[in-house]
Specification:
alpha/beta, 10 helices, 12 strands
Length: 350
């Protein structure tokens, strides 16, 4: 076989025993999970804001950023539930480039998956211990979810993974909301089928076990834009796009808790992070105009870090992304406060 099997990795139970939840970490997570479920079920009018770096590439700068975020959360808690985006594994379109903390705890060193597994768990634990927040991560590898399932409050299924059966079935066994992104083609039907699969019970093979999932009633849509057959970027956050999603949900009455998170970056912004505040404001205007849109839009994803833009690995700028470009801290802080003010004044004109 054309592979070199280096070593057998430790199983999730062993990693959890080495790095267990301590103090009141489990109580913090339980409380925040309950509040997030209220948002998706419509029992809370708060907006979910999933915000943070494109990739959690440096533990020191990521924690610096998250401590700032925790200070803001207290100021906007009446209107916004902040879930820090702590993405520790990154899908790569061609397979090339930095694949995240899971692969390379140090971006300038060779991959070390065992160190990466431990580093990701330690980082998500630090988020709870030091900020009182609980984080979101992307489930790039379904079999790795058990290393973090007691720490995460939100999971995203990426545009390249949403058609994969193992991702869908693993999402059906989660106890936290799973966001299913529209595929890179933009096809709503694929996304809606993925939500259906994630919301229902299945029996399947997981980590060498025959497992039966219970179904995840909080699986939902994420609109992130798409690319056509000629490689051109198209957005899908506009008024008409969200209404089309409302229609898609109404055509599938078996789906529970109809909801969408708007990803303000990726193809929606043409990968221009400075468009994110404008996109968020447009969606908020759509919410004010339509009760259908207000009911279904539960929150936003924003790519944000300490410094604007991006740099190559080894670029040397503290708190600047080494993957996709991000919105810097000052602009991000302004975005959060403006969103909170908008929510405090929100009315429906329809």
């Amino acid at each position: 076989m054309n592979m070199d099997f280096k070593r057998k990795l430790t199983i999730p139970m062993e990693v959890k025993e080495m790095y267990p939840l301590t103090g009141n970490m489990d109580r913090i997570k339980e409380k925040r999970d309950a509040e997030i479920r209220k948002i998706f079920s419509g029992r809370s009018n708060k907006i979910l804001l999933i915000i943070g770096p494109c990739s959690a590439d440096n533990e020191v700068s990521v924690m610096d950023y998250l401590e700032r975020l925790a200070d803001i959360q207290e100021k906007v808690k009446d209107h916004i539930m902040i879930v820090p985006r702590v993405y520790t594994n990154k899908p790569r379109t061609t397979g090339d480039g930095y694949k995240g903390l899971l692969h390379q705890p140090d971006p300038q060193e060779k991959p070390d998956m065992l160190r990466g597994i431990i580093a990701t768990r330690e980082l998500h634990m630090r988020v709870i211990q030091e900020t009182g927040l609980t984080s979101a991560d992307e489930m790039l590898y379904p079999e790795n979810y058990k290393y973090l399932d007691d720490l995460l409050s939100y999971v995203a299924i990426g545009a390249r993974s949403v058609e994969d059966q193992q991702h869908r079935l693993t999402a059906s066994g989660m106890e936290v909301p799973a966001g299913m992104k529209n595929p890179t083609s933009g096809d709503y039907t694929i996304m809606m089928n993925s939500i259906h699969a994630a919301q229902n019970s299945h029996t399947f093979i997981y980590r060498g076990w025959e497992a039966t999932s219970m179904g995840n009633p909080y699986a939902h849509a994420i609109l992130r834009g798409y690319t056509n057959s000629r490689g051109e970027h198209f957005s899908n956050y506009h008024y008409e796009d969200i209404l089309r999603l409302c229609d898609a949900y109404e055509a599938r009455p078996e789906l529970k808790n109809p909801a969408v998170i708007i990803d303000t970056n990726h193809e929606n912004s043409g990968k221009d992070p400075f468009q994110q505040p404008r996109i968020l404001k447009e969606v908020m205007n759509s919410r004010s105009y339509s009760s259908r849109i207000r009911k279904i839009v539960k929150g936003f994803m924003v790519e944000s870090y300490i410094e604007d833009g991006r740099q190559d690995i080894g670029g040397g700028c503290y708190g600047k992304s080494i993957t996709d470009a991000c919105l810097g801290w000052e602009k991000s802080e302004r975005l959060i406060f403006e969103l909170a003010e908008s929510l405090s004044k929100e009315t429906i004109s329809e």
